Amino acid sequence: MRQTASIISTYSADTFGVCSMLYELGGMVVMHDASGCNSTYTTHDEPRWQTMDSMVYVSAITEMEAIMGDEEKFIGDVVAAAADMNPKFIAICGTPIPTMIGFDFEAVARVIEARTGIMTFGFATTGMKTYTEGAGEALYGIVKRLVKAPVNKVKGRKVAVLGVTPLDFSINGEDKSIERFIKDSGYEFMGNYCMGVSLSDLEGLSEADVTLVTSAAGYKTAAYLESEFAIPYVIGVPVEGKAAEIVKGQLDAKLNVRESGTVSGKSHNGKTAAVIGEPVITVSIARNLFLEKGYKVKAVVAVDADSELLSKLSFGGIEIVHHLYEEDIEADIKDADVVIADPMYKPIAPLKCTFVDMPTESFSGRIYRNDIIDVVSDFSPIRSKI
After folding, report:
1. What are phi and psi of 20, to 5 degrees?
2. Chain center to CA of 215
3. Is the peptide bond before 194 cis (omega within 30 degrees of 0)?
4. E-only strand ranges, 21-62
5. What is the pTM for the complete model shown?
6. How far apart (Å, rounded) are the C-alpha atoms in residues 236 and 383?
7. What is the structure's pLDDT at 245?
8. DSSP-assigned beta bridge partners for residue 123
9. In whole angstroms, what is the distance from residue 331 CA to residue 324 CA?
């Protein structure tokens, strides 16, 4: 029963990660599940739903369809909806029910594309992994299909930011703060992929001179762009303070503006801190705690993340642990003097610690949406409490 969360919440599922990454690109996303899955996503995980239209649907699979495996019914419904809505692409993704009956998403996607003539993707999400997995596969899948080698590329200082969705960055202006950071640093901002960009913007990704990976969802795509088009990448969120200095230095180095320098910090103050959440954001915040405050920091990665990404996030003075289960996370933070995490982690935090609220859409949904901190523009709401 280790996998049971009896006290804390759970992170948004991989299925919803697909929906979030593709939300603004003009496609039709279909979750293959019983009726109700869509309202869970739109009510709790998708703040854009109230202000921006998107074609996100649920198949409303019935018990008999699940038992009999009636793929033709699903295919017919998607084809009919596509004829009415005329989307730029179609994406289908899974949940526990189609996973249990062995639904072949890639094969069904090929059938739908053949019948509609519309580019179709099949993502074999299960609803059992976290949003980082689904969002990462969605971005990688569409980039691999759409992005071609540039013609007569002119080298410059173009930066594309990968892995930006409201699940990590909400709609509190943090995406705009990342844009300002890029521009204020003297680079050309290409876009936050995928917030505030279009499908045509996505097609031009090979024109980037460097990519900035701001969440685990962007890592696989960054690695692909590097191997396929020799576009280097930097991993990190430019959290206001020392973390932003590190990101700028690494971007400068990749763009051959200057060598990446060393960012100095304070000596260890004898205290410990723990930060819980998504790996890139968590480690970026941990850098500020270590360099600015002198804390010995444990970054607790509580979502699905590539082991290669975690190794690349390694940073002196910061211990990175990867635990998805409640009892493991509770053990990780039991001796911390300071814990920085979503408020829904507070019941398992040690009583003696200073607990600093850092809400995230992916964990507590809309409950603390108005309290989500834009750490890129201003880290002081956290800095002042520790």
Report:
1. -70, -45
2. 5
3. yes
4. 28-31, 55-58
5. 0.94
6. 19
7. 96
8. 93
9. 12
CA distance 171 to 175: 8
Domains with residue ranges and CATH for the chain = 14-129 (3.40.50.1980), 158-254 (3.40.50.1980), 272-383 (3.40.50.1980)
**What gap in Å lies between CA 364 and CA 167, rounded to an integer?**
10
**% pLDDT > 90, the chain:** 82
Using CA atoms, how far residue 126 sits from 147, 293, 306, 344, in Å, is 27, 41, 17, 24
If we measure between CA atoms, which residue out of 125, 268, 278 comes closest to residue 214?
278
- Does residue 287 have a pLDDT over 70? yes
**From CA 161, how far away is CA 234, in angstroms rounded?**
10
Tens of pLDDT, residue by residue over 311-367, are 999 998 899 999 999 999 999 999 999 999 999 999 999 999 999 999 999 999 999
pLDDT of 261 > 60? The answer is: no
d(CA 6, CA 4) in angstroms, rounded, equals 6
**Which residues, 6 or more positions from 166, have their beta carbon under 8 angstroms from its beta carbon?**
20, 45, 46, 47, 48, 195, 361
Q: What angle do CA 124, 144, 60 make, to 5 degrees?
A: 30
Mean pLDDT of 137-147: 97
